[in-house]
Amino acid sequence: RTFSIAVIDGDGIGPEVTAEARKVLNAALENDDATLHYTEYSLGTRHWLETGETLHDETLEKLRSHDAILFGAVGADPQDQRIPSGVIERDLLLKLRFELDHYINLRPTRTYPGVSTPLASTEDFDFVVVREGTEGPYVGNGGSLRRGTTQEIATEVSVNTAHGVRRVVADAFARAVSRRGHLTLVHKHNVLTHSGSLWRRTVEEQAALNPQVSWDYMHVDAATIHMVTNPQRFDVIVTDNLFGDILTDLAGAVSGGIGLAPSASINGAGTTPSMFEPVHGSAPDIAGRGIADPTAAILSAGLMLDHLGVKDAAGRIEQAVNAQMAEWAERNTGGGLGSAERGDAYVSRIKAL
Ligand code: NAI
Ligand code: MG
């Protein structure tokens, strides 16, 4: 099996961590019948400065032909006056997500060996947030009346369709089945009654189809408390675009490692390539020094293999990262390692599995 992978390594530490992810992918696939064929795309701030383009329609069409997209990070140094704020995020990241219909935004969140969390308890946890990616208040459905006056009225209407909610909830149930069998719907249906009711009815309907999954409901404000006081109670969280955006940042924070958290933007129907990327950005403060932690990019590459159905190699990456992090923790030798040293250590682990 050969898979065609688009690589957008982007700006700042994006190329540094993506290079390590590719090393680890190659090692994980060495004795596997799957092969990856890479095509590089130059997109991001550098590309914008050179060409004035964020994402040309022709490039988007080319991207559609791949099996998956491996993404590093994009984004300008906030000190750089040449780049208007938000251009790259809106015209590149959001455009990719909407055009490629990435309706599942996945952020697995867990404790990592030797990495302390800001939580009082040291007990391990492991949950995944399934955030809806194409609807909700992020669709740009709104406007402003009497703009600029003291009578201004601005609206931002959240769009929730039966089709859109059902497909992401169905995906979340499927993930719960292959995990610990529990799902939590997070919403605010006591106040947002129209969309909340649709989400709740959809979860009830899917729950009936998945009797082996237990489920509960939590208001989003309560969920922020539980994520800090008792994250062990979560297995799969399913939620809308806005709540998911906020909750996944909190999830990243409670896991204790910005350089460790992977993510995936998935088209569950498989009609367009899904995209795999670390949660972190381009980190201009450390870019070019070879010290960025490539672990998040490497775990994201593992999610990509898993999504492509290359399960054994995906498992090898996860296992190697865990074992290596545990060893660094035990021997207290992880600190101060460079990106390439970390990448090489994971590669050696994989070869030794
Ligand atoms: P950031 O995630 O790039 O950096 C935040 C802090 O975490 C920095 O101190 C950075 O040095 C550190 N950090 C991040 N990744 C690390 C790693 N792998 N190893 C060690 N330390 C790491 O977020 P920030 O500074 O808010 O944004 C910088 C640029 O990245 C901005 O232009 C922003 O728009 C963009 N961005 C892009 C994202 C993407 O491409 N998906 C996501 C988030 C931000
Ligand atoms: Mg966010």
UniProtKB/TrEMBL annotation:
Pfam family for this entry, one: Iso_dh
KW Nucleotidyltransferase (keyword) present: no
Essential cofactor(s): Mn(2+); Mg(2+)
Isopropylmalate dehydrogenase-like domain location: 4-346
Protein name per Swiss-Prot or TrEMBL: 3-isopropylmalate dehydrogenase
EC number(s) reported in the record: 1.1.1.85
Record key words, sorted: Manganese, Metal-binding, NAD, Oxidoreductase
PANTHER family according to UniProt: D-MALATE DEHYDROGENASE [DECARBOXYLATING]
InterPro entries: ICDH/IPMDH (IPR050501), IsoCit/isopropylmalate_DH_CS (IPR019818), IsoPropMal-DH-like_dom (IPR024084)
GO molecular function: 3-isopropylmalate dehydrogenase activity; magnesium ion binding; NAD binding
